[in-house]
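During data preparation, a discrete fold description was generated, as reproduced here:
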Amino acid sequence: MLRIYCEAHHGAGGELCGDCDALRQYAEKRLEKCPYGEEKPACNYCPIHCYHKARREEIRTVMRFAGPRMFRRHPILSVFRLIDKKKTPPKRPE
């Protein structure tokens, strides 16, 4: 999703620009520490907010833009994302 957003807004070819790459690294680091692990629900349905407030808005902006455009580029991933959105979040881990 970041690549779709970056190509449209920053004109980066195949690579992410510095800002988008920093956001990707931040997101990966936060998701590694997520207590849900592989059972993590979609972010907008998750009871735990992994990102700091400013970064959360950046991620939302990227997802709002790239989400509808993702189906053209990655149709299978888009279907999995729709399925994930329907899952109820598991009980909060201790």
